[in-house]
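User: I've been trying to design a sequence by hand for this structure and keep getting stuck. Would you show me what you'd pick, starting by listing the structure so we're on the same page?

Assistant: Good idea, let's start from the same input. This is the structure you sent:
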């Protein structure tokens, strides 16, 4: 199956041409510089109405989940891949539906085939290389500038990647591709060595705590691994229902609040 560029753009905010309506455009490679990262985060903080730079830090860390997802998708489904390197990525902030989204532009959209030979022999290097050379330097720069612990920043990514991977799997008609996508995701989450991330533990290896889902009664939703700091935005959002900081009583109050709002919305 060829790379689905529509999927990359519409679901993952990954494009091959810069958007002309961007509020800010920054080469990803410069974000390893602390001054450039600080400048970016301060701008992004204003756009998301963050009360401090740490909110921008967690939100920006979370944005990279789409790149992780795209890598898993190409690894499992397509015969070729796009070059994910800091030198080949440009970051843009674009307002879509009144929210400032982070878009990732691939400067050179040339496709190259995956390595030949047994997949198990090269899969670790392909996945690990991305985290070592691309995402790890970005995360370490964010942490250095914001003071947010690395583990908290990495914790913004796993649930999003899991969600997107499952959504893509659900749309694949080929059973073999679906199985390979989920198998490769399991490898990422359970087997990829933590050393690639520069951490003591693989951040994707999350022990899930399931909660009652107020948005889908009767179903479950996982608790977030770490707090995203959404409560420190000037948006009235408050704590997320799945925030690990909430007590059992606070979460129940949040669940009832969400269900009341949903009921009121349906009644209108």
């Amino acid at each position: 199956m060829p790379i689905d560029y529509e999927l990359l753009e519409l679901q993952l905010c990954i494009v091959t041409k810069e958007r002309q309506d961007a509020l800010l455009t920054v080469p990803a490679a410069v974000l390893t510089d602390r001054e450039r990262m600080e400048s970016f985060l301060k701008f992004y903080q204003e756009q998301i109405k963050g009360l401090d730079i740490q909110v921008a830090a967690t939100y920006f860390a979370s944005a990279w989940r789409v790149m992780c997802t795209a890598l898993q998708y190409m690894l499992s489904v397509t015969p070729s891949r796009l070059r994910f390197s800091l030198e080949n990525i440009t970051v843009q902030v674009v307002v879509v539906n009144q929210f400032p989204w982070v878009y990732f532009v691939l400067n050179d959209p040339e496709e190259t085939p995956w390595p030949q030979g047994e997949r198990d022999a090269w899969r670790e290097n392909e996945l690990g290389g991305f985290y070592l050379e691309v995402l790890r330097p970005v995360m370490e720069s964010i942490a250095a500038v914001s003071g947010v612990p690395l583990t908290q920043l990495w914790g913004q990514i796993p649930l999003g990647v899991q969600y997107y991977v499952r959504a893509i799997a659900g749309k694949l008609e080929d059973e073999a591709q679906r199985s390979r996508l989920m198998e490769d995701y399991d490898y990422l989450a359970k087997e990829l060595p933590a050393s690639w991330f520069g951490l003591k533990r693989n951040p994707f290896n999350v022990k899930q705590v399931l909660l009652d889902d107020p948005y889908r009664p009767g179903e479950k939703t996982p608790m977030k691994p770490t707090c995203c700091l959404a409560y420190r935005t000037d948006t009235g959002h408050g704590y997320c229902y799945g925030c690990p900081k909430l007590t059992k009583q606070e979460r129940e109050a949040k669940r009832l609040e969400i269900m009341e709002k949903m009921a009121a919305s349906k009644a209108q």
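That's my pick for every position. To get oriented when you compare it with your attempt: The chain has two domains: 5-206, 211-267. The beta strands are 14-15, 24-27, 80-82, 89-96, 99-106, 111-113, 210-212, 220-222.
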